[in-house]
Amino acid sequence: MEKIFDWNRIMFNDLPAAFLLEVVLRSVVMFMVILMTLRASGKRGIRQLSIFELVLIIGLGSAAGDPMFYEDVGILPALTVFLVIILLYMGITRLTDRFRWFERVMEGEPVYVVQSGKIRLEELKRTGLSREELFSELRLQNVEHLGQVRTVLIETTGEVSVLFFPDEEVKPGLPIFPGQQKKVLPTDQNRCCAECGEPYTNAASNGCCTCCGCDEWVGSMTTKRIA
Ligand SMILES: [Zn+2]
After folding, report:
1. Helix pair angle (75-98, 51-69), 10° resolution
2. What is the Å distance from ligand 1's center to 43 Cα?
3. Residues with Cβ within 5 Å of ion ligand 1?
4. Sign of CA dihedral 167, 173, 176, 178
5. Which domain of life is it from (predicted)?
6. Which residue, of 54, 117, 148, 192, has the fewest CB within 10 Å?
7. What's residue 203's pLDDT?
8. Mean per-residue pLDDT over the chain, rounded
9. Ligand 1 center from residue 124 Cα (angstroms)
10. Which domains occur in the chain, in start order?
11. Ligand 1 midpoint to CA 101 (Å)
12. Average of pLDDT values for 1-24?
């Protein structure tokens, strides 16, 4: 067994210190390769990656890093990996441009998760986003309760697009800030389904939500959106 805490091995992997010069050369080469490959892929700057693009980046990343400093990993095999990945990327991009169904398979589809202040629970489940994550995204867009929101669309990149009701059309809605969801209500207060956010007048809510069957209620909010 190798000696543990062998500083020569820990620091230099038992290689001569001059190997660091080779690491410099390898890193420069691989850096240029990554740069040229990403330029060739036609991608512009990146804000959010789709799953497909993430796969591309992970593939390139693992192939790029190793030959920079593993003395037994050559640069040519890594270049081959790059070539294959970029050809796959270009081929798949061409197919997604051409066939709608193929694009759906590769990138997924945008999903409407809120419509007219009501959460579409089944659709939300499809996105893998929890209610709390959705609320957090909405809070970041200055939403105080769901009655302010006409439509929420989860893009294929995971970004959240929101359309708002104009002030005069804001409806009673489910509060989404922590601590605002009051569950003990005066009998005359209008309320929302705690699960899907469907608004009810007090009289209509003696039982379960007709939309999702939930029997928990939260007092509605009616504040306008001041952004
Ligand atoms: Zn409901």
Report:
1. 170
2. 42
3. 193, 195-196, 198, 209, 211-212, 214
4. positive
5. Bacteria
6. 54
7. 57
8. 87
9. 14
10. 7-105 (no CATH), 111-219 (3.30.240.20)
11. 33
12. 84
Q: How far is the CA of 187 from the centre of ligand 1 (A)?
A: 19
Percent of the chain with pLDDT over 90: 37
Distance 200 CA to ligand 1 centre (A): 10
Neighbouring CB atoms inside 10 A of 134's CB total 20
Beta bridge mates, 152: 114, 162
Query: Which two tokens mark 208?
Result: 């379960």
Q: Are 116 and 150 within 8 A, CB to CB?
A: yes
Measured over the CA atoms of residue 121, residue 126, residue 132 and residue 138, the dihedral's sign is negative
CB distance 143 to 149 below 8 Å: yes
Pairing state between β 217-219 and 191-193: antiparallel
Sign of CA dihedral 52, 74, 32, 94: negative
Q: pLDDT tens digit string along 128-141?
A: 889 999 999 999 99
